[in-house]
Amino acid sequence: MKPNNNKLASLLALALTAPVLADETCQSPYMPKITGQEDVVYVWTLGMEGIGDEQDKMVTVDVNPKSAHYGKVVDSVSVGGRNEAHHSDFTDDRRYLWAGGLDTNKIFIFDVHADPAKPKLVKTITDFVAKTGGVVGPHSFYALPGRMVITGLSNNKDHGGRTALVEYTNDGAYVATYWMPTDQKLQDDPSKPHADGYNYDVRALPRKNLMLTSSFTGWSNYMMDFGKMLADPEAMKRFGTTVVQWDLHTRQPQKIFNVPGAPLELRCAWKPDHNYCFTSTALTSKIWLIYEDKPGVWKAKDVADIGTPSNVPLPVDISISSDDSKLWVNTFMDGKTRLFDISDPFHPKQVYEKKIGAQVNMVSSSWDGQRIYYTSSLLANWDKKDADNEQFFKSYTWDGKQLKEQFSIDFIKEKLGRAHQMKFGAYSLYTAQAK
What we know:
The chain is 9% helix and 41% strand. It is mostly beta strands. It has a single domain (5-434), classed as Methylamine Dehydrogenase, Chain H (7 Propeller), CATH 2.130.10.
């Protein structure tokens, strides 16, 4: 089913003309932007055995310095059990926040507009695998006009990496499944057998009718103990090596790029004349550029190393600045965040680094670039053990030269669990919508 082109155009125009003062820089361009200071950050959190109620939960943190509750947890909504909570995102009108569980395949939909400080769980989708024809592991959620596009990580036949892209309506009704392509004819280099059919993240450049997906690994790997997996030669072969170019409107694959080493998060440039996106590879520690070489012709190129690749620092989340000049890159194993100057996207240069903790996973940058937030958890069975199993939400300011910590919340001490992914909320956004 194709989206309504008139609505698509109007929403894109809104995204390009709305005030852009303080929103995350990894959001869908179809969403209205937060204007001014974000009030809260929603942290999708994994339950931990022996910690609090042991359940996955949506945790709300007050991040407005003018608030009496600044730096404090103001709400927590448990969803029942441990589902391997992972990623979440808003619908295009930003009234609902969808969040998924990689193990149980449940999708939890929260109302965040009625009371942004207190999200309410209003719907749980429990038939994702059956409806989609066997897709396992709902991962990234990405808003299109009236639609939520979801990347799967696995399948229910062999729990490997072969999987699909799935489309739902904003109301939670299943629309379609688009299996990841394995057609050799779509490969950018037919001499390399890399049409693996894996999936991970999804992003779009609507002005170019472009959608991109990256690739990771299947259920049998991401639910395995990290040390055991590293010692298993066969398991280490089961990682994705592709980025796929799609026709955004028809949802049809157009080209498969060879990007070895498990390309994870995708982040696209914001400026209308910048036709490129970035990803980083977990196993080979590279920054890759997917770019329009000439009108309608897209290519992929590795453009920089992250740390010392031979040490496998394990790049995880990345965050692009709203002016397309900087890229924050987190590396899980050494707990560091690194800042790259990407003003020349073909030659990124590291200009700063800081150790955030024993481990670090997600990074979210405000639109004005002045506030950077971090969380700690990668996957329940991949997080570090004992004292290195730090679980936190941390807030920093960036003055153009260095990060300065504003506050830190210990999620284990607060009996919350493993802090994973973050999304911003603002009270003024919903006040404006009500008007």
